[in-house]
Specification:
Blueprint: E1 2-9, H1 15-20, H2 28-36, E2 41-48, E3 52-59, H3 65-74, H4 79-82, E4 87-90, H5 91-102, H6 114-129, H7 134-153, H8 163-174, E5 182-186, H9 190-201, E6 206-211, H10 214-223, E7 227-230, H11 234-237, E8 243-246, H12 257-266, E9 272-276, E10 293-297, H13 298-336, H14 340-366, H15 371-400, H16 403-412
Parallel strand pairs: 5-6, 5-8, 6-7, 8-9, 9-10
Antiparallel strand pairs: 1-3, 1-4, 2-3
């Protein structure tokens, strides 16, 4: 039985292909059942995100032909349409691939943490569908443990590599306890939404979303327990904000020096961190010259981002070393499964000898035989029967000059090595 990781991702396929091979959440269970209905596939899990669609399977095939054929048929695609973008990783390469993905090393943004949650969700859905068995259960549990180790032992996720993440990281450096502070986010686009997400997960006390379209502001604010206001109400709420992050498409500044001066007075000169991500800028440059205001622009954040990328790349090298070690550990466990049947047969054989000899001894004792002689006979017979087959094979190996078998016997029975 082989492990297989089959799929496409942002590195191998354009978005128009990735869109066509995604799995709708409501159809995932049926897809899993359909995939494992084949005699060639015994276990399966499906990971489907905007950047990747992957099938992790236990299969009788190491090239994944059955899985690929099913994948194409399910999405109604021809071989020519999808085959150029598909990768197939068997066995050890599959284990390494899954560990790298879970650790954020194969992500569009190096070290991003969301993928681990998505993998856990894929595992959970496959488990609920009944398509997870011993092999994939072990793989996924090992994967979760390794991803946690990578996060703990390296700095893969600690350095900012996006503008929104950099902005929030800067806020966390200046305000150590975000729970006691309020953030005013101006705009409601992707960057502001991402900043809100990072602030929310970091425990910010309160979020205010200001946007030209109040409905859009409400939509973002509702997701993060925030409060929505129109742009015109910013002056009335600016004094409440310890952190201001602005990213709009306005061609003119949203915040001028006068409004900020008024807010600083109301705050009794408690400092304000202002981060202007917009181009053109949303906050008048003169604001940066004011006391008690710390103004950063998108160019300032780029320095933080570059430092973060360098730090993550260094951490990624450490993570790769961890993963290589853990791949070897998993493959050791996988290979040990080959010995299970032999161990079971050996133990059954030994148990059969024991039971037969004990039965003979019990019969002798019930007939009034001397217990001491019965015990000696029991021990003698069991020793002879346990050692007969190995002794015969070692004798034959010596006759044939098969020293490697004799060495294996010494290792297996923990015998002292003697000079030949």
């Amino acid at each position: 039985m082989s492990l297989l990781a089959v799929g496409i991702n942002h590195k191998t396929a354009p978005v128009e292909i990735r869109e066509r091979v995604s799995f709708a959440p409501e159809r995932l269970t049926d897809a899993l059942h359909e995939l494992t209905s084949s005699s060639e596939v015994s276990e399966a899990a499906i990971l489907s995100t905007c950047n990747r669609t992957e099938l992790v399977c236990s299969s009788n095939e190491d090239q994944g032909k059955t899985v690929i054929d099913w994948f194409e048929h399910y999405h109604k695609l021809s071989d020519d349409e999808v085959r150029p973008y598909i990768y197939v990783h068997p066995d050890q390469l599959a284990v390494k691939h899954v560990l790298r993905v879970a650790s954020g090393l194969d992500s569009l943004v190096l070290g991003e943490p969301q993928i681990l949650g998505q993998i856990k969700d894929a595992y959970s859905k496959a488990e609920q569908a009944g398509t997870i068995g011993k092999l994939l259960n072990k793989l996924f549990q090992h994967t979760f443990s390794v991803a946690k180790q990578v996060r703990t032992d390296t700095a893969i996720g600690s350095s900012p590599v996006s503008v929104a993440f950099a902005a929030v990281s800067l806020a966390k450096q200046i305000f150590s306890d975000l729970e006691e502070h309020t953030a005013l986010l101006i705009g409601a686009g992707e960057t502001i939404e991402l900043a809100a997400r990072h602030l929310h997960s970091s425990g910010i006390g309160r979020i205010i979303i200001a946007n030209r379209t109040l409905e859009k502001a409400h939509s973002v604010a509702a997701e993060f327990d925030g409060y929505a206001i129109p742009l015109g109400e910013i002056p009335a709420h600016l004094a409440e904000a310890d952190i201001v992050i602005s990213s709009t498409a306005s061609q003119l500044p949203i915040l001028g020096k006068g409004a900020v001066e008024s807010a600083v007075k109301q705050r009794k000169h408690r400092p304000i961190l202002m981060i202007d991500i917009a181009v053109p800028r949303d906050i008048e440059p003169e604001v940066g010259k004011m006391e008690d205001v710390y103004l950063y622009t998108v160019d300032d954040l780029q320095e933080i981002i570059q430092e973060g990328l360098k730090s993550r790349q260094e951490a990624a090298e450490q993570a790769e070393e961890i993963i290589d070690t853990q791949v070897a550990h998993f493959m050791g466990w996988l290979q040990s499964l080959n010995s299970v049947d032999a161990i079971r047969q050996f133990r059954d054989h030994a148990t059969g000898i024991r039971d037969a000899e004990v039965a003979k001894a019990m019969q002798l004792l019930s007939n009034g035989a001397d217990p001491e002689k019965v015990l000696q006979k029991l021990a003698h017979n069991m020793t002879n029967k346990f050692t007969h087959a190995p002794s015969t094979q070692m004798r034959q190996a010596g006759f044939e000059g098969r020293d490697e078998l004799l060495d294996a016997a010494r290792l297996l029975f923990q015998l002292k090595t003697t000079d030949r």
